[in-house]
Amino acid sequence: MTQTLRQTMTDSSLPASPRWRSGLEQEYATLADTLAQLLPCLEVPLHLPWIDAIRQLKQQRGAVIMAHSYQSPEIFHGVADITGDSLALAQAAADCDSDLIVLCGVHFMAESAKILAPDKTVLIPDLEAGCSLASSITAADVRALRERHPGVPVVSYVNTSAEVKAESDACCTSANAVQMVEAMGVDKVIFLPDRYLGSWVATQTQVELVLWHGQCEVHEKFTAMEARHTRERFDAKIVAHPECAPEVLAEADFVGSTSAMGKWLEKEQPRRVAMITECSMADNLRNQFPNVEFIKPCNLCPHMKRITLPNIHACLRDLKHEVVVAHDVSVRARAALERMLAVGRRERI
Hints:
This protein is of the alpha/beta class. The chain has 3 domains: 3-128 and 305-318, Rossmann fold; 132-214, 3-Layer(aba) Sandwich (Rossmann fold), CATH 3.40.50; 219-300, NadA-like (Rossmann fold, 3-Layer(aba) Sandwich), CATH 3.40.50.10800. It has helices at residues 3-10, 24-27, 29-38, 44-61, 73-76, 86-95, 107-116, 132-135, 139-148, 162-166, 177-183, 195-202, 224-234, 246-249, 258-268, 279-286, 309-318, 327-348, and strands at 63-68, 82-84, 100-104, 121-123, 154-157, 170-172, 188-192, 208-211, 237-240, 254-255, 272-276, 293-295. The strands form 3 sheets. It has a 4-stranded parallel beta sheet with strand order 2-1-3-4, sandwiched between helices. The protein has a 4-stranded parallel beta sheet with strand order 6-5-7-8, sandwiched between helices. α10 (162-166) links the parallel β5 (154-157) and β6. α7 (107-116) crosses α18. The termini are far apart. Residues 1-15 have low confidence and may be disordered.
C-alpha cells in the first residue's frame, strides 16, 4: 500500500474509522487478491481495516453475518459467514446456532430471519434498506384480494413485509415459486406481489394465477433492446432473473433465480455471459468462474447498497437496529414461511 493511503487510514481526523494495524496486508493477502479481481484495486486497502475490525467484533459478539448475493464483494467475500439467495438465508436463519444474526440485505429479509428465529436477536445495518416490491402491497390489500376471490389460497413472494406474509397461506422465492404454487393443490392461486415473476410462473404451470401489480425497481429497468444489443455486440449468452419483463425474458438463453443462475453457469461454462439482474450478482460470481467473461448491462439496487462495511461495524459495535416483529404477526407469518421450507425439505428427501 502506498504511504498516502496508509496515512489516510491512520489520519486522526477520522476517529470513527478502524486503524491500520501492522501485518494486515499479510494476514488478508488471499482475500485482498480476491477483492482486487472484483473491485477497483485502490478500494481494497480502504476496505481491509473495516473487514478486520468487523471480523474481530463478530468473534467477540458470537455473531453470524448473513449476506444476500446482491451485496457488494467486500461484504459478500470479506465479512459474511453465510451467503446466498432469499431461500438460503431463510433456511440459515431457521437453522442458525448463534443468538445474534446480522442480516446484510433488505428489511424483509431481516424480518424473515426474526420470524424463523424468534428467540434470537436479528440486526440490520440500515433500517432504510427497503424493497420496492415489499412496498407495493399491504396486508389490507391481501385481505381485499381474498374477499374478491373467496377460498383462493395466497402465495406471497418473500419480498413482502411480515404483515403481508401473515395474511398469506405460503411464501415462495424466485427459486421455488412454481413449486409452491403447485403445492397448494388447487386450480387457482393468488400470487403476489411481483407481476413479472407471476407472469413467468404462469408460463410454467397449469395453475391459474391472480396477479398483483408490483414490480422490482431494479429488474423493471432492463429492456429487450439491451439484451439483444448485448448478445449481438459481445456474442454473449443472456441469463435473466424472472423479475424482468416478459419481453426481456424472451431474449434470454436461461431464466432463473440467483441460485439457479450460478448452477447454470457451472453447467454451461459460457465464454461470455450477461447477467440481467443486480450488478453485484455478477461481481460475486466472477470469482467463482474466472474463465467466464461477464458482460454488463446490470442495475444497482439502491436499497442493497445502503449496507456498507462502516454500518455493519456500527451495527455490531452498538448492537443497534434490532428487527422486531409483533408476536401475532410473527406467528402467522412463520406458518407461511414454514410451509415453504417444509415443501423444500420434502423435495430433498
